[in-house]
Amino acid sequence: MKKKKKLIAILSASAAVLVVGLIVWAFFTSADQKTNSITPGENILQISEDYVPIAQQEQGDNVYKKEVRIVNQGNTDCYIRVYADFSNSDVRSRSYLSNDPEAAAGSFYSAERSTTGDTYIAHLSETAPHWEFVADDSATPLAGYYYYTEPVAPGASTEPLFTYVKTTNATDADITQYDIMLYSESIQVTDLSGEAYGTYALAWTDVLSRS
Fold first, then answer.
1. Quick one: how many helices (H) and strands (E) in the chain?
2. Phi, psi (5° rounding) for residue 5?
């Protein structure tokens, strides 16, 4: 029996901060050939954030720290993916993400989720270690998520997906409350026969095709 572990964290990027968590256990099976018993493996994720909110948004560039990592609190190696998006598409179009701990001016990348259109210039996953993004308009069941390309061992965490967020308000009329939505999932690194998938893409494609 297999269920997916899901964790949702919603962060308000204005003075009011909203964080909502939902945990669903995920169980995967592994067979012991000597006794023919079946034991469950647990995938338990935690979204870890180092968040420093701004007092209030202003006209111009609004930069605040929000370092996002995913921690494997289960007892089996797993592949991890994250859905991260803005609650307001207009805000998303003028927001940028950086995984640079110094938040250098040239380290911010478009938060857009498509590879088409004038607003998509460069994407965060081009510089985030071990993270790859599959755009919303990609013709694949993997579309719309950030994927951690390496297996994450029990007790370990991913590299930061991003560390800083910047939203640009050209005028006072652009200033609006918005949320950043984070949703994380994990799957085991081996298939039902116990063979390693080898890559995150093979693992997720196989699991999603059977869900």
1. 2, 12
2. -90, 125
CA dist list (Å): 34 to 190, 191, 194: 20, 20, 15
User: What is the distance, to the nearest Å, from the Cα of residue 126 to the centroid of all Cα atoms in its chain?
Assistant: 15
Residue 189 neighbours by CB under 8 Å, 6+ apart: 76, 77, 78, 79, 151, 196, 197, 203
Q: Say if residues 81 and 184 touch (Cβ distance below 8 Å).
A: yes
Burial class (CB in 10 A: 0-12, 13-18, 19+), 130: middle
* Long-range contacts of residues 107-111, Cβ cutoff 8 Å, at least 24 apart: 108/164, 108/166, 111/86
- Name the residue with tokens 């990609």: 138
pTM to 2 decimals?
0.78
Q: Over the stretch 150-193, which tens digit does the pLDDT of each residue have?
A: 999 999 999 999 999 999 999 999 999 999 999 999 999 998 88
CB atoms within 10 A of CB 170: 9
